[in-house]
Amino acid sequence: MVEASTGVVEADGIWTTKPGLRIGVRVADCVPILLAGPLADGSPWVAALHAGWRGATGYGDPAPGGGILRRGVARYQALGGHPSHLVWAFGPAILACHFEVGLEVIQAARQDPAWQEALASMGPAGKPHLDLHGFLRAQSLDLGLESAREGSVALCTVCRPDLLYSYRRGETTGRQWGWIEIG
Ligand SMILES: [Zn+2]
After folding, report:
1. Ligand 1 center to residue 61 CA distance, Å?
2. Which of 4, 28, 38, 63 could form a disulfide linkage to 16, CB 3.0–4.6 angstroms apart?
Protein backbone atom coordinates (compact mmCIF):
# COMPACT_ATOMS: atom_id res chain seq x y z
CA MET A 1 0.00 0.00 0.00
CA VAL A 2 1.83 3.08 -1.23
CA GLU A 3 1.03 6.70 -1.96
CA ALA A 4 0.69 7.30 -5.67
CA SER A 5 3.27 9.30 -7.57
CA THR A 6 3.33 10.10 -11.25
CA GLY A 7 4.30 7.09 -13.34
CA VAL A 8 3.80 3.38 -12.82
CA VAL A 9 4.14 1.95 -9.33
CA GLU A 10 4.50 -1.76 -8.60
CA ALA A 11 2.29 -2.32 -5.59
CA ASP A 12 -0.82 -4.19 -4.50
CA GLY A 13 -2.48 -0.96 -3.47
CA ILE A 14 -2.08 2.76 -4.08
CA TRP A 15 -3.81 5.83 -2.72
CA THR A 16 -3.77 9.56 -3.26
CA THR A 17 -5.23 12.82 -2.00
CA LYS A 18 -4.22 14.76 -5.12
CA PRO A 19 -7.10 16.02 -7.29
CA GLY A 20 -6.69 15.07 -10.93
CA LEU A 21 -4.18 12.28 -10.31
CA ARG A 22 -5.91 9.21 -11.74
CA ILE A 23 -4.85 5.94 -10.13
CA GLY A 24 -5.75 2.43 -11.11
CA VAL A 25 -5.02 -1.26 -10.77
CA ARG A 26 -4.60 -3.75 -13.58
CA VAL A 27 -6.30 -7.12 -13.15
CA ALA A 28 -7.36 -10.14 -15.17
CA ASP A 29 -9.30 -12.35 -12.73
CA CYS A 30 -8.32 -10.72 -9.44
CA VAL A 31 -10.61 -8.19 -7.79
CA PRO A 32 -10.02 -4.48 -8.40
CA ILE A 33 -11.12 -2.65 -5.24
CA LEU A 34 -11.86 1.07 -5.30
CA LEU A 35 -12.28 3.15 -2.12
CA ALA A 36 -13.14 6.83 -1.67
CA GLY A 37 -13.88 8.89 1.40
CA PRO A 38 -13.19 12.09 3.29
CA LEU A 39 -10.26 12.55 5.65
CA ALA A 40 -10.64 14.27 9.01
CA ASP A 41 -10.39 17.74 7.42
CA GLY A 42 -12.97 16.83 4.77
CA SER A 43 -10.49 16.57 1.91
CA PRO A 44 -10.92 13.50 -0.31
CA TRP A 45 -8.87 10.31 -0.27
CA VAL A 46 -9.08 7.59 -2.91
CA ALA A 47 -7.43 4.19 -3.24
CA ALA A 48 -7.19 1.37 -5.78
CA LEU A 49 -6.28 -2.10 -4.52
CA HIS A 50 -5.57 -5.40 -6.23
CA ALA A 51 -6.90 -8.53 -4.51
CA GLY A 52 -6.37 -12.07 -5.64
CA TRP A 53 -6.69 -14.76 -3.02
CA ARG A 54 -3.22 -14.02 -1.68
CA GLY A 55 -3.96 -10.31 -1.47
CA ALA A 56 -7.37 -10.89 0.07
CA THR A 57 -6.05 -13.23 2.75
CA GLY A 58 -2.64 -11.68 3.32
CA TYR A 59 -1.13 -15.13 2.67
CA GLY A 60 2.65 -15.08 2.76
CA ASP A 61 2.69 -11.34 3.43
CA PRO A 62 5.46 -10.41 5.87
CA ALA A 63 3.59 -7.25 6.87
CA PRO A 64 1.11 -7.76 9.70
CA GLY A 65 -2.49 -6.64 9.48
CA GLY A 66 -4.20 -9.18 7.23
CA GLY A 67 -5.03 -8.74 3.56
CA ILE A 68 -4.80 -5.74 1.29
CA LEU A 69 -8.32 -4.49 2.02
CA ARG A 70 -7.68 -4.49 5.77
CA ARG A 71 -4.38 -2.70 5.23
CA GLY A 72 -5.99 -0.19 2.87
CA VAL A 73 -8.74 0.72 5.32
CA ALA A 74 -6.16 0.89 8.13
CA ARG A 75 -4.21 3.41 6.08
CA TYR A 76 -7.36 5.49 5.58
CA GLN A 77 -7.98 5.43 9.33
CA ALA A 78 -4.37 6.34 10.04
CA LEU A 79 -4.91 9.43 7.89
CA GLY A 80 -7.99 10.38 9.92
CA GLY A 81 -10.77 8.77 7.89
CA HIS A 82 -13.69 6.84 9.33
CA PRO A 83 -14.53 3.50 7.64
CA SER A 84 -18.29 4.16 7.67
CA HIS A 85 -17.69 7.16 5.37
CA LEU A 86 -16.02 5.13 2.62
CA VAL A 87 -17.72 4.55 -0.71
CA TRP A 88 -16.47 1.18 -1.96
CA ALA A 89 -16.68 -1.10 -4.97
CA PHE A 90 -15.33 -4.42 -6.21
CA GLY A 91 -14.98 -4.66 -9.98
CA PRO A 92 -15.49 -7.66 -12.26
CA ALA A 93 -13.39 -10.68 -11.26
CA ILE A 94 -13.51 -14.44 -11.32
CA LEU A 95 -16.57 -15.17 -9.18
CA ALA A 96 -17.58 -18.22 -7.16
CA CYS A 97 -19.05 -19.92 -10.26
CA HIS A 98 -15.55 -20.34 -11.70
CA PHE A 99 -13.03 -19.71 -8.92
CA GLU A 100 -11.89 -23.27 -8.23
CA VAL A 101 -9.09 -23.23 -5.66
CA GLY A 102 -6.95 -25.59 -3.63
CA LEU A 103 -7.71 -26.35 -0.02
CA GLU A 104 -4.73 -24.24 1.04
CA VAL A 105 -6.58 -21.19 -0.28
CA ILE A 106 -9.62 -21.94 1.87
CA GLN A 107 -7.30 -22.56 4.83
CA ALA A 108 -5.68 -19.18 4.30
CA ALA A 109 -9.06 -17.46 4.07
CA ARG A 110 -10.20 -19.14 7.29
CA GLN A 111 -7.52 -17.20 9.17
CA ASP A 112 -9.47 -14.00 8.56
CA PRO A 113 -11.79 -13.05 11.44
CA ALA A 114 -14.61 -12.26 8.99
CA TRP A 115 -14.52 -15.71 7.35
CA GLN A 116 -17.81 -17.62 7.01
CA GLU A 117 -17.94 -21.22 5.78
CA ALA A 118 -20.69 -20.30 3.32
CA LEU A 119 -18.05 -18.41 1.29
CA ALA A 120 -16.68 -21.78 0.13
CA SER A 121 -18.70 -24.25 -1.90
CA MET A 122 -17.87 -27.58 -3.50
CA GLY A 123 -17.50 -27.36 -7.26
CA PRO A 124 -18.38 -29.94 -9.93
CA ALA A 125 -14.78 -31.22 -10.05
CA GLY A 126 -14.82 -31.98 -6.32
CA LYS A 127 -12.65 -29.00 -5.49
CA PRO A 128 -13.71 -25.98 -3.47
CA HIS A 129 -14.81 -22.73 -5.06
CA LEU A 130 -14.15 -19.46 -3.24
CA ASP A 131 -16.50 -16.49 -3.29
CA LEU A 132 -13.82 -13.80 -3.40
CA HIS A 133 -16.26 -10.90 -3.69
CA GLY A 134 -18.22 -12.30 -0.75
CA PHE A 135 -15.06 -12.76 1.29
CA LEU A 136 -13.97 -9.17 0.68
CA ARG A 137 -17.50 -7.96 1.45
CA ALA A 138 -17.42 -9.82 4.77
CA GLN A 139 -14.11 -8.11 5.56
CA SER A 140 -15.57 -4.74 4.57
CA LEU A 141 -18.54 -5.06 6.91
CA ASP A 142 -16.24 -6.34 9.65
CA LEU A 143 -14.13 -3.20 9.16
CA GLY A 144 -17.15 -0.94 9.57
CA LEU A 145 -17.87 -0.11 5.94
CA GLU A 146 -21.55 0.39 5.19
CA SER A 147 -23.60 -1.79 2.82
CA ALA A 148 -25.44 1.27 1.52
CA ARG A 149 -22.16 2.70 0.18
CA GLU A 150 -21.15 -0.36 -1.84
CA GLY A 151 -21.22 -0.09 -5.64
CA SER A 152 -19.70 -3.37 -6.78
CA VAL A 153 -20.11 -4.90 -10.23
CA ALA A 154 -20.79 -8.62 -9.82
CA LEU A 155 -19.68 -9.78 -13.28
CA CYS A 156 -17.56 -12.92 -13.66
CA THR A 157 -14.56 -12.50 -15.99
CA VAL A 158 -14.75 -16.15 -17.07
CA CYS A 159 -18.50 -16.07 -17.74
CA ARG A 160 -18.38 -12.91 -19.84
CA PRO A 161 -15.89 -13.22 -22.72
CA ASP A 162 -18.06 -10.69 -24.57
CA LEU A 163 -17.08 -8.01 -22.06
CA LEU A 164 -14.04 -9.04 -20.05
CA TYR A 165 -10.58 -10.53 -20.19
CA SER A 166 -9.81 -13.61 -18.12
CA TYR A 167 -6.46 -15.19 -17.41
CA ARG A 168 -8.19 -18.33 -16.13
CA ARG A 169 -10.05 -18.62 -19.43
CA GLY A 170 -6.71 -18.73 -21.23
CA GLU A 171 -6.09 -15.14 -22.27
CA THR A 172 -2.70 -13.93 -21.22
CA THR A 173 -2.47 -10.63 -23.04
CA GLY A 174 -5.50 -8.59 -21.97
CA ARG A 175 -6.32 -7.00 -18.64
CA GLN A 176 -8.99 -4.87 -17.03
CA TRP A 177 -8.18 -1.59 -15.33
CA GLY A 178 -9.99 -0.22 -12.31
CA TRP A 179 -9.55 3.56 -12.20
CA ILE A 180 -10.38 6.22 -9.63
CA GLU A 181 -9.68 9.95 -9.55
CA ILE A 182 -10.54 12.92 -7.36
CA GLY A 183 -12.42 15.31 -9.61
ZN1 LIG B 1 -18.20 -17.49 -13.83
Report:
1. 28
2. 4
pLDDT range class, residue 8, cuts 50, 70, 90: confident
Distance 153 CA to ligand 1 centre (A): 13
Q: Which of 140, 136, 131 has its CA nearest to residue 106?
A: 131
Whether the pLDDT of residue 59 is over 90: the answer is no
Q: Who has greater pLDDT, 171 or 160?
A: 160
Residue 85, SS3 per DSSP = helix
Distance 114 CA to ligand 1 centre (A): 24
Going from the Cα of 73 to the center of ligand 1, the distance in angstroms, rounded, reads: 28
DSSP-derived secondary structure for 32-67: EEEEEEE-TTS-EEEEEEEE-HHHHHTTT-SSSSSS
Cα–ligand 1 centroid distance for 169 (angstroms)? 10
pLDDT at 172 over 80: no
CA 23 / ligand 1 centre spacing (Å): 27
Which regions of the chain does DSSP assign to beta strands (E)?
Answer: 2-3, 13-16, 23-27, 31-38, 44-51, 87-90, 120-122, 128-130, 176-180
Residue type, 22: R
List of domains in the chain = 2-180 (3.60.140.10)
* Cα 170 to the center of its chain, rounded Å: 22
